[in-house]
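Let's practice the habit of predicting before peeking. Look at the sequence and jot down your guess about where helices and strands might fall. Then scroll down.
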Amino acid sequence: MAIELPSDLIEKERSAWAKIQAGALTVETALEVHEAIMAFAAESGESRLAVEMELKRVVRHPQPAPEAS
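Done guessing? Here is the structure:
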């Protein structure tokens, strides 16, 4: 079952992923994303690992939009 991730967390991960790909990720950016993941996991009751895995799946492997018929 997919975890309902907040849009601000997804945007933080997208920004970090773009910086990773550009070779420009900083410790501060990585820490900001990590802390946001931990905070969301704590408030949602999900494990940190489950949240991080779902977040990476959503950002790095997005599903194509369904075709309109």
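How did you do? The mean pLDDT is 93.
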